[in-house]
TrEMBL record:
Its main location: other. Residues 226-410 form the Dyp-type peroxidase C-terminal domain. Its EC number is 1.11.1.-. One of its GO terms (biological process) is iron import into cell. Residues 55-214 form the Dyp-type peroxidase N-terminal domain. PROSITE patterns: DYP_PEROXIDASE (PS51404), TAT (PS51318). Its cofactor is heme b. Keywords: Heme, Iron, Lyase, Metal-binding, Oxidoreductase, Peroxidase, Signal. This is Deferrochelatase. It comes from Nocardioides bruguierae. It catalyses: heme b + 2 H(+) = protoporphyrin IX + Fe(2+).
Length: 422
């Protein structure tokens, strides 16, 4: 792919100095030591290939920042939709390699037309950017209308998620015909990606809702340290990890023999659940209660039955009063694979703080994202059990919800989702 990297525009040294990480000032609000500085520079310079067997942004080591957007398709013209996917593919490939969204760039085009890149990422490295595309149920059929001749290609599992107890969904934060997940080490890189893709889609799609996230709440590789969510607990310990290749086939990647496997094989389903956390109330709970709600210790993340972070929980170990030491209504007891026929999910969520609510509390929580091979067996029953039985629910409110099918990877010369339109 031809093009000058955005950093080339500034020249090596100047471009390095332009990144806060490289300048060694601070990353994510923390002062960095020399070693961490080097790691931060590496992470900021990371590039992941856009094309491959699977879309990037699923098993890719979870980056620190998210901009997620859901779109409504505003045209009935199938060719216009395909054209957009072709353009999105080209722009996404360029941006993930640290290039401008278009071949001309932000500042080198003619004065009398809008630039083909918006410019706010000039001088920034690729930042480990991944861009992951998904298709919602409305792309296949909306209000009983098959706009694009795709109705008979919809896998049965790709439908609106059911209403769960304790859902208080905002329509304007739910659903969507298409989604784009942009993850990067630098928020400006992630926002730049979504902004440019939305700009390219003008007239064909409209942003329905979007969500910014920070501080990944999962590890997707054994090489990553487990991060913490806004309750202060390690989150991602028992996640499906990139190194578990057999588990990925079993639990994450749609297989050719699965429903929709003719176009979705090598892909996955993305479940998004915007989850508000009443953190001010949580902060007033005793440590013992907080640990009981989760079923793990707050310090090390070890299960309450003992061991270290990665020790398997022992749900039958008795505690005081002959009750199990891991409460049966704790989060890990309720969602653990042993309670769901072995079903697991690859979680890849982010913390969010969207200002303050009417009562002066933080409008904050976890933008939960999970990738599963089959939402009907791996997500819906787990969410149902959680909504009904999990003591953590006292501190949670689900305010957004969406399900998308994420097609497999994009081959050379192809556009994203090409097999669906063949
Ligand atoms: C329906 C699926 C899930 C939702 C929604 C969910 C929300 C949610 N989770 C936490 C905090 C933690 N979750 C942890 C583990 C965990 N969570 C789910 C599923 C959902 N969580 C699963 C399948 C698991 C793994 C269980 C296992 O295999 O042991 C943990 C423990 C650490 C870890 O393994 O990651 C924490 C902590 C919050 C705060 C939250 C909503 C805001
Ligand atoms: Fe969880």
């Amino acid at each position: 792919m031809a093009g000058i990297s955005r950093r080339g525009l500034l020249g090596g040294g100047a471009a390095l100095a332009a990144t806060g990480a490289a300048a060694g000032i601070a990353v994510g609000g923390y002062a960095l030591g020399r070693e961490s500085e080097d790691a931060a520079v590496d992470a900021a310079s990371d590039t992941y290939p856009f094309r491959g067997t699977h879309q990037a942004g699923i098993v890719t080591p979870a980056q620190d920042r998210l901009h997620f957007a859901a779109f409504d398709v505003t045209t009935d013209d199938r060719q216009a939709l395909v054209d957009l996917l072709v353009q999105w593919t080209a722009a996404a490939e360029r941006m993930t390699q640290g290039l401008d969204a278009g071949p001309v760039g932000a500042v080198d085009g003619p004065y009398n037309v809008p630039p083909d890149d918006t410019g706010e990422a000039i001088g920034l490295p690729a930042g480990g950017l991944t861009i992951t595309f998904g298709f919602g149920p409305g792309l296949f059929e909306k209000d009983g209308v098959d706009r694009f001749g795709l109705a008979d290609r919809r896998p049965a599992a790709l439908r609106d998620l059911p209403h769960f107890p304790a859902d208080v969904l905002d329509r304007n934060r739910s659903g969507g015909d298409l989604c784009i997940q942009a993850c990067a080490q630098d928020p400006q890189v992630a926002v730049h990606a979504i902004r440019n893709l939305a700009r390219i889609g003008f007239g064909t799609v409209a942003v329905r809702w979007s969500q910014l996230g920070f501080g990944r709440t999962s590890s997707t590789s054994t090489s990553q340290e487990t991060p913490r969510n806004l309750f202060g607990f390690k989150d991602g310990t028992a996640n499906v990890k990139a190194e578990e290749t057999a588990e990925l086939e079993e639990q994450v990647w749609v297989q050719p023999e699965d429903d929709g496997g003719d176009w979705l094989a090598g892909g996955s389903y993305l479940v998004a659940r915007r989850t508000n956390m009443t953190i001010e109330v949580w902060d007033r709970q005793p440590l013992a209660d907080q640990e009981g709600f989760i079923g793990r210790t707050k310090g090390t993340g070890a299960p309450l039955s003992g061991g270290d972070e990665f020790t398997e929980p022992d749900f039958s170990m008795p505690g005081s009063n002959d009750q199990p030491v891991i409460p049966v209504d704790s989060h890990v007891a309720v969602v653990h694979p042993s309670a769901h026929g072995g079903a697991r999910m690859l979680r890849r969520g982010y913390n969010f703080v969207d200002g303050t609510d009417d009562l002066g509390g933080l409008n904050a929580g976890l933008f939960f994202i999970a990738f599963v091979r089959d939402p009907d067996t791996q997500f819906i029953p787990v969410q149902q059990a959680m909504s009904r039985n999990d003591t953590l629910m006292e501190y949670l409110k689900f305010t957004g919800s969406a399900l998308f099918a994420v097609p497999g990877g994009v081959g050379e010369g192809e556009h994203v989702g090409q097999a669906l339109f063949a």
